[in-house]
Amino acid sequence: MVVKNEPEDSKIPIVKKTKKENASIRCSEHLNGLVDVARNAGVTFDSLEVKLTEEELAHTVSRLFIAQHFGGSPQGARQYAKDHNIRFHFADKERNTYLPSRPGDPGLFFDGHANIDEDLSPDPRYTFIRLGANSWHYLGNYKIKNVTTVTRDEWNLQSDAFKAVWTTSIHQAKTWGKDLRKVIKARNLFREENAELERDPTRDELEERKERVSEAEINSVSVAEIKEAYDSGRQVLWISTLTFVGYDEAFQRTLIEKSRPVPRARAVANDGVKKRKSATAVIDFDAAPEGDANGDGDTISSRVSKRRRNVR
Predict the structure, then answer these.
(1) d(CA 235, CA 187)
(2) What is the pLDDT of residues 154-174, one digit of tens each?
(3) Which of 16, 157, 180, 209 suits a disulfide with 32, CB 3.0-4.6 Å?
């Protein structure tokens, strides 16, 4: 997992939160037992006390808007806005079926590259969930902790749709997906070249074989090979818990204020006839967050729209 170097002294303003006694995560049919991971990790529900209306809490913005006003890239699950000293975390529900649904909710995050011994940072992250094209919802500040992996049995209990989303994303993603395809190809080649060993490569053996995997071999990895790697348990997804620690009310108000549409004067020709502006191609950076996630978890399928869009 690639994580940018970040300072350790960030301080995040939060609002008051209130614990609910004996709270537990509500089970989701899509998780098929993985919710126990969150329970065992001590994830609880925190109610929220803020001076925002429901409409203000529900306000969304685009990834491009966030990058333009705070910094970082409009692509990538984890971003750091250096000028504002803010760590962001972006996730979509296509690959993560149990993300928080509202501010204060706990959740789980699936990760292709995480390490159980490596936390993202000691500080919480401003967490956004993708609701649709150009629509990212700030849910609060969350501590994200890698806790375990999805076992082979747990993976095989998931729906075909869940597994298809992940295998297809890994097959198509240009960065994090490529890294995973390289690992899968290196492991398969090692097993073919050392069939008499009847085992998978050790970590050192896998690293050595990865160095000799060509671009053509990486590109040859099929969706079926990726699925087999996960079905067999040789390749796994990591699970991270998302624990709510607070809500930055001033930050949400800033998002609302800065994303208000600005009235534009309509262009008028010298003869008094209004001119029509030509359509401009705009890349939709919000198609999916690419990077160390989902992907870290996260596929890029940037779409180009020939119609004009207002960047919120």
Answers:
(1) 10
(2) 999 988 999 999 999 999 988
(3) 157
